Amino acid sequence: MTKVLKDNFLYYLILSIFIWSISIIIDKLLFTYFAAFFGLYVTFSLIKKYFQQEKNPFGLLNIGSIFLIFTINIGWILSGFFIFINYKINLFDFLDNYLFVNYRNYIYANVYTLLFCLILYLLSLNKELLRRENSLNQSIKKFNEINISQLKYLVIIIIILEAILFYNGFIDYRGYANERYQAGIISWYVPYLDFIFHFQISITSLLIFNFLNTKFLFKNLIIILISIIFFSIIFFSRGRYQFFFSYIELFFWYCFFNKSLPKLKSLVIIFLILVPIIYNLTIFNDFLRNNRDNQFIFDREKTTFINALPKFYNLWRLSNKEEIENKTSINLTKRFLLLYPLAKSIELDNEKKNHLLGENILNNIIWTVPRVIFPKKINFEVKEDLMTKFGVYFTDTSDSIYLFSYLDFWIFGILLYPLILFFYWYFIIFLLTFRNYNPLILIFFISKGLLLFFSFGEGGSLAYFVYARDLVIITILISLFNINNLFYNRKLF
Length: 493
What we know:
With 493 residues, this protein is mostly helical.
């Protein structure tokens, strides 16, 4: 209780909720921007402490809540900017006349989500949970026990695996070029590929740290660059959100190994280099998404996604850049308004709302059961199908946790879903700490989980249950084959 009272962030968060709440009464767009900038400042100052290890970087429950607060505030600011640029109107008018949702209901959605984050953050301060998170942090900090030379071999093996997947065309745009996968049937090994790809980011970051703090070796630089290129292509194929967060992961792990943020000068240089690159890649990704069904460029029966990329690039290079940029800018305008589905759900007439009463949670748990055991799980609705059942219809939208907290339990979802997330994370942290794992194994375990918690604003609840299931299976396998004893600071090759 004392720790809770001493946590200044809580006071700032409550103040932020209050400011957003009274913005409904004040009814001035400028005041909402003030509320957003205030929330942005508060969360950014705290996020920085996690990257600097002033706070436990593996307190993923509170990190998730903080990142969500940060995301919805910066989303409001950025959407307002892009709306003014593209439509020459203000954000309130855009919500009313283009998205057909009353701007007050969007602010209600904002307040609802902030209260959701407040409850989640309070739960994250549980004493036993903090103890286990600190234990995890201390265990991973023993990464200096890892044999770095062995990591190079490990990265090379992963690169060879990826090269094979590229060569045979298995890695596709937005997924995998596999008939079963395209039909919605995910083979047993597919989730573990994602574990490997995220793990690659973390160990590449460790190699970067080692490279910058030891004697320069050109071969090490080559391995690092090839690894970055390969995982960049993989996550680029998943879409701009996963591509962007792959570099957030890389940055996170580097700060962890470095035990601090890079110097301000280095951050500015990195920012100036990456912003134009990411901007152009975002435009290219949208162009790719809009033209992926062009059989003249990408015929899946004749070519692979990786082979089609140069063709897409040449077409993009010869295209009307201004038109493509405008389309991307308009698309980003809507995508930054993350709470739009929740706002529409709140706005729906009460007599038309059909609250799901936990059906989302239950169906997601059912979907984690392997198809070979329960083939009829496909009959249980998830994602957009459940949204339609509630009474709203969306396509290509995020089935976010805070959205389904409302669809499931109305305003009581503010409390019930954070409680579910708390017990979920406690289970995960228990799996990670119930025995003495070597740091590399722990990094492998948690690497994929970072994306889930860093991106509360985008991630659906099914991904969390699948991650837990796969983590249980991997834990059992590691115990059976005694893999935990590998990769300590001793030579194996």
